[in-house]
């Protein structure tokens, strides 16, 4: 993609009544945008690379086949993985009711991808062209089911102690009972907290955490086998099965798409 697009805009120091309609640029691995909010909605798309969006509700990860959505008023931060071709499309507040009222991630269809690229690459030649193309984006998103790689974060101190240990080492194979000893809680209590606070089992939460890290490793050029080992899977086959179920494509296909996008 061209290197001459406007730089990806940093978060404003204070909320603004108006924002650029779109923007984008190549960002280095590890680039961060600290916590901020907007009076308008924002779509952020990594046409190459990957990004993580974090709010008080947890973290969403979007590889190149997904786009993140943040409605107005939500404090959020971004982190980018790999050399990322980041694209931003602003959705005016009056149009945001057409989309979900919470941060999310959506699958990117071929039509949606091309519309997002056009909105962030092209100059508006005919009056109203930008609004018409943005309407196509909104229509595509309203017809697309959410595919959130969402990792919720707990409030309970005991559960947070467990998730902090897993964040520090996603590949650890420690059982919930062993983690409970470190957190001062029984495995039964922790299992109940995972369901009541996070809406998923311990196994499901740890799998999503590992997939988040796997996406980062693959984006950084690691092999499928090395990624499986580092993220805690006993063999590549079980990793491929879990990754495909969550992401919607095999890790090998994901790596191949990254190479294609970088060319």
Automatic annotation (TrEMBL):
Which parts of the sequence belong to the HTH araC/xylS-type domain? 160-257
Q: Kindly state which keywords UniProt assigns to this record, in alphabetical order.
A: Transcription, Transcription regulation
List the Gene3D superfamilies hit by this protein, alphabetically.
Answer: Homeodomain-like (1.10.10.60), Jelly Rolls (2.60.120.10)
Q: Does the keyword Transmembrane apply?
A: no
Question: Record's SMART domains?
Answer: HTH_ARAC (SM00342)
Q: Segment Disordered: which positions?
A: 1-29
InterPro entries, per the entry: Homeodomain-like_sf, HTH_AraC, RmlC-like_jellyroll, RmlC_Cupin_sf
PROSITE patterns noted in UniProt:
HTH_ARAC_FAMILY_2
Q: Name one Pfam family in it.
A: HTH_18
The protein's matches in CDD domains, at most eight in alphabetical order, are given as: cupin_NimR-like_N
Alphabetical list of PANTHER family matching this protein: HTH-TYPE TRANSCRIPTIONAL REGULATOR NIMR
* The protein's name: AraC-like DNA-binding protein
Q: From which source organism is this entry?
A: Streptomyces iranensis
